[in-house]
Amino acid sequence: MSPATTIKDLPVYEYPKQTEAQLDWANLEALDISKLDQPGGKKALATQVLNFIDKNGFFYVTGHGFLNEQITRQYALAQEFFHLPLEEKTKYLANTAAGDFRGYKAKAAGANAGRDNDERYNIPKFTPEHERPHPQLILDHFEEIKDFSLHIHNKILLPLLRLFAYVLEIDEEYFVNRHRYDAEGLEYLRYMKYHPDPKDLWAIGHTDYNTLTFLFHQPVAGLQVQTKEGWRYVRSNPDSIIVNVADALEFLSGGYLKSTVHRVVRPPKDQAEKPRLSLIYFARPEAAIKLEPVRSPLLERLGLQKEIEEGLSSVTAEEWARARIAKDHRFRAGLVKTRETEIIAGVHQKYYD
Ligand SMILES: O=C(O)CCC(=O)C(=O)O
Ligand SMILES: [Fe+2]
């Protein structure tokens, strides 16, 4: 390969073109988190958050401190990873039957081929708990992937958690203290590849089971968010990360922050024949954190304060995530015909077409 098309060791990743299709786009707020370091910035952002967060858990983050090249390097790695032979990738299979999503998930095949059209590689946080084998490609770029993951955790996740705590008028370290990087618990960076497929629905409507999900720029349209007015496409802008509130943060915030339903549909005609790569970071609370609602002066004032009750409040973040992953596995593997809705402790997960 010529030097012009590689940066040192990897082919340069070029984003596909944005679609020219006229789509119904969701209107989402953008939080410029670089403002948090400026006088008055926290207050301004809190006002913005209060305007949407009890209705819709999707928003953009700008001012996140990543250079475009850092993000496209991760896409280049994702692309190279998925080019590895299937027998190499399957050496690193995730144990999804046990609710463990670390490692590789192949695209469904054989009798279950219709159940999904995506491959994934989940790279867990860089702590001794999660030391595990990786392909040489990943090992060769380990420090770069680690720096990328740590930037998301320390420079994006934690400031957002402090901001949400400020909005709820609680100790600003309340959520941060439940997301210590070195503590036991699973977060991961995901490389994902959707293979072109004629079916309309590529990922059924769902909520995520973690704290916050960070979706990096991805011009192939397909991600949709459920709104009161119906499904709306989420536009991906080059300077923004798309963020969504997921189950654990909804539970911890006493239901105030909304874990928002989303899905992935087949891209519009001008993009439908291309593979769709996604680069996603799933932040989760520490494993042992109980999903009990916080006591918040804001929620008290609004009459929305939830009490700690039997049931979900005694379920940990780890138990919730494992239960969701294992149920999902049972469907994808063809062990059950339809998705099971009760996850744990009598709490139901809703699926939407
Ligand atoms: O690929 C995307 O844009 C979204 C994927 C997603 O919702 C998920 O993996 O939970
Ligand atoms: Fe999702």
End-to-end separation: 44 Å
Unreliable stretches: none
Q: Ligands in the structure?
A: 2-oxoglutaric acid, fe (ii) ion
| Average pLDDT rating | 92
Number of domains in the coordinates? 1
Largest sheet: 8 strands, mixed
CATH-level-4 superfamily name: B-lactam Antibiotic, Isopenicillin N Synthase, Chain
Approximate shape: globular
Per DSSP E runs of 2 or more residues, the count of β-strands stands at: 16
Query: Based on the structure given, which CATH architecture is correct?
Result: Sandwich
Salient structural properties:
353 residues; alpha+beta; Jelly Rolls; 8-stranded mixed β-sheet; 4-stranded antiparallel β-sheet; binds 2-oxoglutaric acid; binds fe (ii) ion
Can you describe this structure?
With 353 residues, the protein is an alpha+beta fold. It has one domain: B-lactam Antibiotic, Isopenicillin N Synthase, Chain (Jelly Rolls), CATH 2.60.120. Helices cover 26% and strands 20% of the residues. The protein has eight helices and 16 strands. An eight-stranded mixed β-sheet has the order 3-4-12-9-14-7-6-5. Helix 1 crosses helix 5. It is globular, with a radius of gyration of 20 Å. It starts with 5 loop residues before the first strand and ends in a 5-residue tail after the last strand. The model has no long low-confidence stretch (mean pLDDT 92). It binds 2-oxoglutaric acid (AKG) and fe (ii) ion.
